[in-house]
Write a structure and sequence with these properties.
By secondary structure, the chain is mostly helical. It has a single domain (13-155), classed as Four Helix Bundle (Hemerythrin (Met), subunit A) (Up-down Bundle), CATH 1.20.120.520. The chain is built from 6 helices and no strands. It has helices spanning 5-9, 17-37, 41-70, 75-96, 103-133, 139-164.
């Protein structure tokens, strides 16, 4: 069951940032489905850090690069998405401080996944089509997102290396 998130990520299509976000959404959905369909504690223990890390990295990229760049398409919807991110952030913090064996951890994880999956659905069915109809040149946004994600991955690797010492 060993799943390496970075291997699944593949190449970030910088000229197609909506496709890149959708690819990450698919990874989140796949991991969420694996978590939600399992009743084995060891599998949930393995999936929890993968899911929380991916959700956290994806959220930071959207909040820092993507949302500011596309806010003019629908500022109300972007504000709604940012509020949802803050609620998920609170649940992520709770998960970081919890023992994976605590039943409350599973309940919090399920609540967080429910919010994230609804959020993904809204982005893909409501906002992305609006964005595509706006016919923006998304290359600069994609390049910024690619650089941001590369920096996050690099920082996470350095942090992991330092913990291993």
């Amino acid at each position: 069951m060993e799943t390496n998130m970075n291997e699944k990520r593949g190449t970030f299509p910088a000229d197609r940032p909506i496709e890149a976000l959708t690819q990450e959404h698919t990874m989140v959905r796949d991991l969420a489905n694996a978590y939600l369909s399992s009743d084995k504690a060891d599998i949930k223990r393995e999936l929890t850090p993968q899911i929380t890390s991916l959700v956290e990295m994806h959220s930071r990229m959207e909040e820092t690069v993507f949302y500011p760049a596309v806010r003019n398409i629908d500022s109300t919807m972007i504000s709604h998405f940012e509020e949802e991110h803050h609620k998920v952030d609170d649940l992520l913090q709770t998960l970081k401080g919890a023992s994976p064996d605590d039943p409350q951890c599973d309940q919090t994880m399920r609540q967080m996944l429910d919010m994230v999956l609804r959020h993904i659905q809204e982005e893909e069915t409501q906002f992305f089509p609006k964005l595509e109809r706006a016919n923006l040149d998304m290359t600069d946004i994609g390049l910024q997102m690619q650089a941001f994600e590369a920096n996050l991955v690099h920082a996470a690797a350095q942090s992991s290396e330092q913990r291993a010492r």
